[in-house]
Amino acid sequence: MSAWLPIATIAQKVQAGELKASELVEQALQAIASKAQFQAIIVSLDDAAHERAKDIDARIARGENVGRLAGVPFIAKDNFLVFGAETTAASNILKGFTAPYQSTVINKLEAEGAICVAKANLDAFAHGSSTENSDFFTTKNPHDETRVPGGSSGGSAAAVVLELTPFALGSDTGGSIRLPASFCGAVGYKPTYGLVSRSGVVAMASSTDTIGPLARTVDDAALVLDVIAGKDALDSTTIDRDAVSYTDLLGDVKGKKIGVIKEYMGEGLDQGVKACIEAAIEKLKAAGAEITEVSLPSLSAALAVYYIICPAEVSSNLARYDGQRFGFTSSDAESLDESYSKSRAVGFGKEAKRRIMIGTYVLSSGYYDAYYKKAQTVRTKIINEFEAIFAKVDFLLGPVAPMTAFKIGENVDDPLQMYLTDIMTVAVNMVGIPAVSIPAGVSDGLPVGLQLMAAQKADRALLGLAKASEELLV
Which positions ≥6 away from 410 have C-beta within 8 Å? Predict the structure, then answer.
């Protein structure tokens, strides 16, 4: 039996006085302490969480309506600016940095009565697929402590599966919500680009960064999305939300046209993962879905394109971390130039440095046309191929990753092998479409995620398909 009721039920019971927000916060903080060996959490916000819970309980006692998430504890990935603790993005260069304001998403959740109880571990600055690039420690997979939870939102996914809180926040730049959801066995939702504000979230690659929830069920993820979606004056890339609630899900697969991506089901796919995905496809077919195989020829170039465009944006975004304005500053520098170089040399980890160097190289004079400009041209070709496919089918389907969770340390010295973990997730981010990972079964005792995708702004329809699929795959 789950430690947590559905999110909507928790909020209703708190609002009705049947549950106390302070008791729920205590439950979450005790769970965090009792499962500390998984290293999912960088810091817990004990004092701030208790204060918020006390305030919510007092407001309810006065007969006030606290909101749709009344008293629900949650965990934020540590690249979200949150009051009550440092925001480090799991990087040494941001040690000591306390946020002067909160991210829009945190403010929206708190306005509906939710309570942030902790900050989750991640690959530093969200650069990675395993949380092994965290400058602090590696989070362990809830199903096998010798394996990674995926990344970069590995701490958030592990926290949900360990039932530390009912939901957690993640960011998805190239698969960083969906991959850990698949590896840990959670629901991970990556919305349409711009549907959720990025204001107050430490930037990685601004043209693909997306904010979304990790939860135990599609219903829970849909409710969180419904709270956080919508335009924000602080993020000019945000778009209008659906006029109908994202919780209003039509859970039926009958007659839905679903394309199975040929390029994701071929060479290099682990046989156990393939068996889970094929079994899911058969269940969808039996429920009345119209399944066809589709091909996106340029997908073979997607990973290479992503690892040119993403580091280029990373090198630009990380330029602000110079050791002067926030976080870590080298104490033994004798000049400003030396302070810059020493602060960045010590503060940034290997992967951040690797991406800064690659990104600076592809943007440099003489190489911009050969690499960055060409990658953007191919990106447009991939966008056009997805648009053409969505004129023929309602949804796309495939695995989240070619494998289940790998051993801690297995790929840490091979960045190319680590990058290949993202081969089935990065295209979604470059195209800006919504995608979700839902549990599809297990292979050798480890979770496998089914990835479902829809056209831009079709988030509610995608969540409806995910809910119907979730019920079939239980």
Answer: none
**Which one of 20, 22, 44, 77 is the catalytic residue?**
77
Contact 123, 154 (CB under 8 A): yes
Q: First vs last Cα of the chain: how many Å apart?
A: 15
Q: Determine whether 381 is an active site residue.
A: no
Q: Looking at the 3D structure of the chain, how many domains does it have?
A: 1
Q: What is the pLDDT of residues 378-392, one digit of tens each?
A: 999 999 999 999 999
* 67-80 tens-digit pLDDT: 999 999 999 999 99
Q: Are 281 and 397 in contact (CB under 8 A)?
A: yes
**Dihedral of CA 234/236/237/241: which sign?**
positive
Whether residue 100 is predicted with pLDDT greater than 90 in this model: the reply is yes
In this prediction the pTM is 0.97
Averaged pLDDT, 138-152: 98
- 254 part of the active site: no
Q: How far is it, in rounded angstroms, from Cα 256 to Cα 101?
A: 44
Task: Check: CB of residue 459 under 8 Å from CB of residue 225.
Answer: yes
Q: Tell me, what CATH number does 94's domain have?
A: 3.90.1300.10
d(CA 391, CA 455): 9
The CB density around residue 365, as the number of other CB atoms within 10 Å, is 6
Q: Which amino acid is at 165?
A: T
Spot the catalytic one: 22, 130, 152, 156. Answer: 152
Our answer to whether residue 152 is catalytic in this structure is yes
The DSSP bridge pattern shows strands 395-399 and 73-77 to be unpaired
Q: Which domain holds residue 80?
A: 1-474
Q: Is the pLDDT of residue 251 over 80?
A: no
Separation CA 435–CA 425 (nearest Å): 9
Q: What pLDDT digit, counting tens, does each position of 58-69 carry?
A: 999 999 999 999
| φ and ψ at residue 309, rounded to 5 degrees | -65, -45
Which of 44, 171, 176, 469 is catalytic? The answer is: 176
pLDDT in tens, 405-435: 999 999 988 888 898 999 999 999 999 999 9
Output the CA–CA distances (angstroms, integers) from residue 271 to 239, 281, 399, in the order listed: 40, 15, 12
Average pLDDT, the chain: 96
Closest CA to 160 of 437, 471, 451: 437
How many angstroms separate the Cα of 85 from the Cα of each of 36, 95, 213, 353?
18, 11, 21, 26
Q: Give whole-number Cα distances, 279 to 33, 86, 159, 438, in Å.
A: 38, 45, 28, 14
Taking 80 as the threshold, does the pLDDT of residue 250 lie above it? no
